[in-house]
Amino acid sequence: MLGVIADDFTGASDIASFLVENGLSTVQMNGVPKRRLQSAVDAVVISLKSRSNPVEEAVQQSLNTLNWLQHNGCTQFYFKYCSTFDSTANGNIGPVTDALMNALDTDFTVITPALPINGRTIFNGYLFVGQTLLNESGMQNHPITPMKDANLMRLMDAQADGKTGLVGYADVIRGADHVKCCFDQLKQQGYRYAVVDAVDNVQLAVLAKAIDDFKLVTGGSGLAAYMAAHKSKNTPQKTQKTALLPTKADSVVLSGSCSVMTNKQVEAYKTKAAHKWLDVEQSLNNPNYADELYQWVIEHLNDDYAPMVYATVPPQKLKEIQQQFGADNASHAIESTFATLAKKLKRYGVKNFITAGGETSSIVVQELGFDGFQIGKQIAPGVPWLKALDEEVFLALKSGNFGSETFFAYAQEMFV
Ligand SMILES: Nc1ncnc2c1ncn2[C@@H]1O[C@H](COP(=O)(O)OP(=O)(O)OP(=O)(O)O)[C@@H](O)[C@H]1O
Ligand SMILES: O=C(O)[C@@H](O)C(=O)CO
Q1: Top EC class per UniProt (predicted)?
Q2: How many angstroms separate the alpha carbon of residue 297 from the centre of ligand 1?
Q3: Coil, strand, or helix at residue 108?
C-alpha cells in the first residue's frame, strides 16, 4: 500500500484524485487519524497543513504521519509538495525529505514537482510554469512562499542536508534502466537527491518505472499518477473511475488565494454571482465580521450561483495590504475569518463548499472537522469533488493556480 504525506489539503486532494483516476482505490484522511485504517485500499493520502509552518513542526507532523502509515500497512511512501515547489529558504521540503529519508533508512530519493497537464515542467533542472520560469510566473509574488528562483537543485540545496544532482532530459528518454544507472552514478558521487527532467508525461512514465522500488518518492502529483498507472497494471480489476458528485444544495465559494489563475477565476465569477470582498482591516479589527459575512452569505443562498466571499487581490494590492498590516498578520486574520465563516455556514446547513487556495482550504477543512474524504469526480485536473466520510457534505479544494477561468461556475454545473 502506498502512503502519501501531503503538505497541504488541496495538494492532498490533487494527488488523491490522480491515484484514483489511475486505478488505485484511495482514501484521503485529514491529519493523522486517531484510529486504525477502516477500509482496505491501495493508497492512503494524509493531508497536513505543514507547508509554511516552522521547520520543526513540519518535520514532527510528517514523522508522526509516516509512523501512522507504517503501522497501517504502507510499505512505500510519497511526500507530496506543490508542483511549484512552494517553500521558504529554510524549508520545509528539504528538512521534511531528510527526516523521512532518515526514518526510512534510505539514502537516495527523487525531487519531481513536474505536473505537465497543468503546465509544470522541468528542463535542465529548471521548473517552468507554462512557458515561463517559476520565478517569473507570478509565484515570485506569493503571499507566504514567494519563489524567487527556478533552479530546483539550488532550491533544494539551500534547505536540505545533502547535495542535489540532475538526471537531464537526454538521459531520461533513454528509458528506466538507464535512469536507474544515472541514480547509481549520482549516489557514487555523493548526491542524496536527484531532480529528474520531465517536459511531458512520457518522462514521468519512465521515471515511475525507475523508482518502483524506492522507499520514499517526493514530488507533485504528476509522478504519482504514473506510479499508480504502473502499479494498477498488475491489478486491473481495481481500476475504478469514480462518479461521486454533489447534489444541488446550499453552496458557497470561499477564495483565499491570490494566484494569477484565482484572480482570473474570481473576476469571471463576479459576472455571474453575488460576491463580497473579505476586508483585511475588518478581519483584524471587527469581532463581528465573520458574523456579518455569514448573514450576507445566507441571504444569497437561493441565487442561481453560490455567493462568493473572496480575499483574492492582484499583486500590487497584496503588496500594499502586506505593508500596511504585515504579511503574517494579514494572512492569519483572513484564514481565521474564513474558518469561522465556514463553520457557521456548515452549522446553518450549507452542503457544498468550494474553496480556493491551499492554506485557505486547509484551515477551512480543519475547522469543519471532517476525518477524511472519499474522492469524487474531477472538476479540473488535480481538483476533485470530495465527499466527507460520514456526512453528505461535499468540498472542492482548488489549488491556487489550478482550473480554468470558469472553474467556480463549472464546479456547480456538475451538481446532480
Ligand atoms: N487580500 C489579502 N491580503 C493579504 N493576504 C491575503 C489576501 N488574500 C489572501 N491572503 C493570504 O494569502 C495566502 C494564500 O495562500 P493559499 O495557500 O490559500 O493560496 P495559494 O498559495 O494561491 O494556493 P496553493 O497553495 O493551493 O497554490 C493565505 O494565507 C491568505 O490568507
Ligand atoms: O501541486 C500542486 O500544485 C497543488 O496540489 C498544490 O500543492 C497547491 O497547494
Answers
A1: transferase
A2: 21
A3: coil
The verdict on 94 and 172 lying in the same domain is yes
Q: How far is the CA of 49 from the centre of ligand 2 (A)?
A: 12
Q: Give this prediction's pTM.
A: 0.94
Measured from the CB, is residue 11 less than 6 Å from ligand 2?
A: yes
Report how far ligand 2's centroid is from the alpha carbon of 86 (Å). Answer: 8
Same domain, 273 and 181: no
Q: Is the same domain home to 203 and 265?
A: no
d(C-alpha 385, C-alpha 416), whole Å: 12
* DSSP states along 38-64: -S--SEEEEE---SSS-HHHHHHHHHH
Hey, whose CA ends up nearest to atom 31 of ligand 1? 331
End-to-end CA distance of the chain: 33
- Regarding whether 145 and 48 lie in a shared domain, the answer is yes
Examine the fold and report which residue of 234, 264, 297 is the final residue of a domain before the chain moves on: 234
Q: Are residues 208 and 274 in the same domain?
A: no
Q: CB under 6 Å to ligand 1: residues?
A: 8, 10, 86, 142-144, 256-259, 262, 280, 311-313, 318, 321-322, 330-331, 334-335, 357-360, 399-401
Predicted pLDDT at 236: 40
Q: Domain holding 391: CATH number?
A: 3.40.980.20
| Residue 263 CB–ligand 2 contact under 6 Å | no
**CA 363 to ligand 1 center in whole angstroms:** 11
Please tell me the total count of domains within the chain.
Answer: 2
pLDDT of 233 reads 78
Distance of CA 98 to the CA centre of its chain: 20
Q: State the ipTM, two decimals.
A: 0.97
- For the chain, which residues score pLDDT lower than 50? 235-239
Distance 241 CA to ligand 1 centre (A): 31
For residues 162-176, b (16+ Cβ closer than 10 Å) or e, as one string?
bebbbbbeebbeeeb
- Tell me the residue range of the domain where 75 lies: 2-234
Shortest-distance atom of ligand 2 to CA 357? 9
Model pLDDT, residue 243: 78
Whether residue 52 has its Cβ less than 6 Å from ligand 2: no
Same domain, 184 and 320: no
Report yes or no: 14 and 399 within 8 Å, Cβ to Cβ. Answer: yes
User: Is residue 384 lining ligand 2, measured as CB closer than 6 Å?
Assistant: no
The atom of ligand 2 lying closest to the CA of 221 is 1
